[in-house]
Amino acid sequence: MTPPRRVTALAASFLPLLFAPAFADSDVLWKIVHDRCAVQTAPCLSVNTAEHYAMLKDLNGIAQFLLIPTDKITGIESPDLLNPATHNFFADAWAEQGDVDSRLPHAIPRDGLSLAVNAQQARSQNQLHIHIDCLSTDARAVLKADADRVGTDWAPLPDAIAGHQFTAIRVKGETLGDFNPFLALAKTLKDPAKDMGGHNLVVVGANFAEGPGFIVLTDVAKPGMGGEDVQDHSCAIEH
């Protein structure tokens, strides 16, 4: 689907910033959401004022979208994410799957959709954003093989994905409901306020023997390795 002309034109005005070196302006996403989307929606596709987030088509990939809070939340290290009153942005991101599907010839199967947040040292922008996109074919194969070995307590995933040795947990249900991956990760850490920023966090849809659910993945980021590594922005699984 071709993006609406008004969105394309406005988004184009940010091209020099978005493709500039990461150190050039780490607040580009915040400026887009705060200065433009919160005022007139475009270049975002939508703004959910009740849940405090906007949906923006990423310039990278054919169907990748970013869920970006409309409040200033720097990233996974933000103390705001440890507040149970903060909206469950991962649950919101899963509910926005239709935006991704609209750019593809077929809807992504449940176990082909992924939501990823990069660790503080593995990102270029200082505004929280969840990458919503296709899972890579390799990652999908690994998780399909390991799905029924993932339990309801955090444990190492048997196989590596894109060089990551993830720890994983199973979540049951069609939606994430009240399960907040940020809070679930924080509960495993000795000092969440200090340690959250070093972690990647990924949510992938799953089909377990007993029904639908999710596999949540996390690891301590190595240099240059983000949670986004499990995704395929060309969406090969749909071609």
UniProtKB/TrEMBL annotation:
Q: Where on the tree of life does the source sit, at the highest rank?
A: Bacteria
Q: What is its main location?
A: membrane
Q: What is its EC number?
A: 3.6.1.26
Q: Report if keyword Transmembrane helix is assigned.
A: yes
Q: Give the pathway listed in the UniProt entry for this protein.
A: Phospholipid metabolism; CDP-diacylglycerol degradation; phosphatidate from CDP-diacylglycerol: step 1/1; Lipid metabolism
Localization recorded for this chain is: Cell membrane
UniProt-listed InterPro entries: CDP-diacylglyc_Pase (IPR003763), HIT-like_sf (IPR036265)
GO BP terms in the entry? CDP-diacylglycerol catabolic process; phospholipid biosynthetic process
**What keywords appear on the UniProt entry?**
Cell membrane, Hydrolase, Lipid biosynthesis, Lipid metabolism, Membrane, Phospholipid biosynthesis, Phospholipid metabolism, Signal, Transmembrane, Transmembrane helix
Q: What does UniProt give as GO cellular component?
A: plasma membrane
Q: Does the keyword Magnesium apply?
A: no
In alphabetical order, the GO MF annotations are: CDP-diacylglycerol diphosphatase activity
| Listed Pfam families | CDH (PF02611)
Q: How does it sit in the membrane?
A: Single-pass membrane protein
**What residue stretch is flagged as signal peptide?**
1-24
Q: Which reaction does it catalyse?
A: a CDP-1,2-diacyl-sn-glycerol + H2O = a 1,2-diacyl-sn-glycero-3-phosphate + CMP + 2 H(+)
Judged by the first EC level, this protein's enzyme class is hydrolase
Protein family (similarity comment): Belongs to the Cdh family.
In Swiss-Prot or TrEMBL terms, this protein is called CDP-diacylglycerol pyrophosphatase
What is the organism of origin for this protein? Rhizobium lusitanum
